Fold:
Amino acid sequence: MHISNLIELAISFTLEVWLVALLLRRNAQHHFPVFFSFTFYAATATAARLLTSFHYRAYFYVFWWTEAFILLLSLAALHEIFHWMFEGFYRLWWFRLFYFGTIALVLSIAARNAIVDPPQAHPVISLILDAGIASNFVLAGIVSLFVLLHRLLAVEFRRYAYGIVLGFGFSSAGSLLGYLARSEFGTKSETFTRYSSAVGYILCVAIWVASFIRAEAEQKWEPPMAPEQMLEIVQGYLGALGMSKRRK
Structure:
């Protein structure tokens, strides 16, 4: 393994351990348990990659299997933050259909592509690559929707939640570029894929550390708007557009 890879892994592991300590100090595991689980697992996965970094075959399997679970946990963690901020939207059946339907569709297309038109890689890696592309598209989409709804509803700022979302934005952008290059050009783009994903992820974890390094006021652990109030505002917008049902 190149020395640059070891440096990247060491930086990532140091930031992840620091972040886990900060999350425990802020009691974030009680408020954002999925995000805490994701962070703890990511630190464990990085430690395993470091331990196997001098044995190519072992590192190969450790990397790709841990990568698969990281993809799943990252989606779950970002969904947790989105739901916490915009719970009112989940009371609208069409939003739930659009939100979960889009995620299911994108992941289904990725699975289909991995089977029918696999990239130049081992079948398992092909599936993970396509799932990685799809997952990062979904992550980028959720981040974009988060920003849109924040501006539309003018909800109060929450540093921890916004920091987590911003971090996922950088991570998904870097990983998406890397996955697309790896899927399209195979091993020829391995160097670009490695650095693109690594830099995006290191920036991501650095943003999370910066977000949690200062304590948040106790009331800031509450969502910025009650679900009922959020639903009322959304229905008002829909009514103004003539899209809501008329009340008798």
User: Anything to note?
Assistant: The chain has a mean pLDDT of 82. The radius of gyration is 20 Å.
